Amino acid sequence: MSARKIMIQGTGSNVGKSVITAAFCSYFRQQGFRVAPFKSQNMSNNSFVTASGGEIGRAQAFQAQACGIEPVVEMNPILLKPASELGAQIVVLGKAVGVMTPREYHVFQPDLLCVIRDSLEKLSSYYDVLVIEGAGSPAEINLRPFDITNMTVAKMAAAPVVLVGDIDLGGVFASLVGTLELLPPEERAYVKALLINKFRGDVTLLNGGLEFLQHKTGKKLLGVLPFIDDLQAPEEDSIPEWKTKSQPGRTGPRLVIQVIHHPHISNSTDLDSLQKETDVFLQFLKRVPDSDPLPDALILPGSKSTISDLAHMRSSGLAKYVERCRLAGVSIVGICGGYQMLGRELLDPEGVESAVPRTEGLDLLDLTTSFEREKKTVQVGAVHMESRHEIGGYEIHMGRTSGPDTARPVFQILEEMGSRMERFDGAGSEDGLVWGTYLHGVFDAPLFRRNFLNTLRKGRGWPPLQASEASSITTADLLANWIRKHVDLRALDQILNGTL
User: Fold this and answer.
1) Per DSSP, what are the bridge partners of residue 487?
2) Which one of the listed residues 312, 384, 397, 440 is annotated catalytic?
3) Among 111, 290, 328, 415, which one has the highest count of C-beta atoms within 10 angstroms of its own C-beta?
4) Residue 114: active-site member
5) Residue 264 catalytic?
């Protein structure tokens, strides 16, 4: 039996499609359906490695979690990872197939339609409901000939569409009406309902506008979703503004952890668990801070273009700031691309990442990284060498790092892709203040995360804290309740059953 389908499209990027897709996934799961997410093409440097070793967008992994299922590559068959201003790495069914410019990719796109169709059909045969996410806006006139994410997918899947607008940005009525006006009549007919997202205040103040909207468009208003402050859900790509600000409701002294915001930052979700800790203030740096004091810790996160971002660190003065932090005894951590930057040199003779064959690193660890064309994407289970705390994580990189400081590994890998094995990862300085790892997700492990933070607290003369207890109410449950409370569930049922 083929799955029933519903598609979430938006009036633009960042209107909340990914979160609403996850919310619908969680709601339908609670209704007793076997549910799966689907996004034909995602553009994001926040990625996740599936149990099969395939790479998909981090948002689809979160949506799968909301469904209570294991993520698979068919949920996001095409992933574009911007590597520079002119090109992106193309990942198809979890594997990188090359780097292309936009024009090259547009020529390649028709070959991907069968991949999208096959992925849809495979998921449809396994599940009762598919919640499909679009990308950007379906009304981008210049992109319509190249559309493989919005109305092309809606037609392929015969999926009714819910169109989402963001009222927090302003102009939501014009955005919804304008999007519909720009769609051809055949595509406009796929839109069955409208949904307003990120509202703040008294919803009754919208009554006149909501009545006009339904009369003007002839479309059902599915609901008005309130803004959720500090939503604990992975970002698809960008780092939201709230993450750079002091969060309300937090009192008492806090550790300051700064993160270098590379132009091509990847897997920034590695820092989300640190952000949630009540004794932490996480600050993303695009430039050298104007004033002291120095942070308790400095993190160099992953990068999709390591050599380019290293050059940016030097030109912006951030490399000198890292050196200053090192001289002052600040704890410095590198993850993936950030780990590679900490070394003495980076070699790229085959031009995998750059036209520059050799680049000097920050020289905080005695390491050499050599870039290779083969991309490593694996899930791992490991233990921290010092504390023996267990962590789960994944690797996504195209480099191999070696050198004297790897004799002080940070983690011992005990499992890779479900199979027992033993190898070591990472490297540290003699004094232990500088360390790096290829493992994404290490701070998601509560005991290791608290061990790291308590070490910083000890440096301040503060007492240690216990690891945070996991809440019995998950983000997915909260999102399902959000839908249940603010959406016309009868109309949603009609859309899913094709009767609206």
Assistant:
1) 223
2) 440
3) 415
4) no
5) no
Q: What is the pLDDT of residues 78-130, one digit of tens each?
A: 999 987 666 889 999 999 998 898 889 999 999 999 999 999 999 999 999 99
pTM value is: 0.82
Catalytic residue of the set 25, 67, 325, 336: 336
**DSSP collapsed to 3 states, the chain:** CCCEEEEEEECCCCCCHHHHHHHHHHHHHHCCCCEEEECCEEECCCEEECCCCCEEEHHHHHHHHHHCCCCCHHHCCEEEEECCCCCEEEEECCEEEEEECHHHHHHHHHHHHHHHHHHHHHHHHHCCEEEEECCCCCCCHHHHHHCCCCHHHHHHHCCCEEEEEEHHHCCHHHHHHHHHHHCCHHHHCCEEEEEEEEECCCHHHHHHHHHHHHHHHCCEEEEEEECCCCCCCCCCCCCCHHHHCCCCCCCCCCEEEEEECCCCEECHHHHHHHHHCCCEEEEEECCCCCCCCCCCEEEECEECCHHHHHHHHHHHCHHHHHHHHHHCCCEEEEECHHHHHCCCEEECCCCCCCCCCEEECCCCCCCEEEEEEEEEEEEEEEEECCCCCEEEEEEEEEEEEECHHHHCCCEEEEEECCEEEEEEECEECCCCCEEEECCECHHHCHHHHHHHHHHHHHHHCCCCCCCCCCCCCCHHHHHHHHHHHHECHHHHHHHHHCCC
Asked whether 75 and 63 are in contact (CB, 8 A), the reply is yes
The tokens of 214 are what?
């339904």
Q: How far is CA 12 from the centre of its chain?
A: 18
Give the pLDDT band (50/70/90) at residue 353: confident
- My answer on whether omega of the bond before 293 falls inside 30° of 0, hence cis, is yes
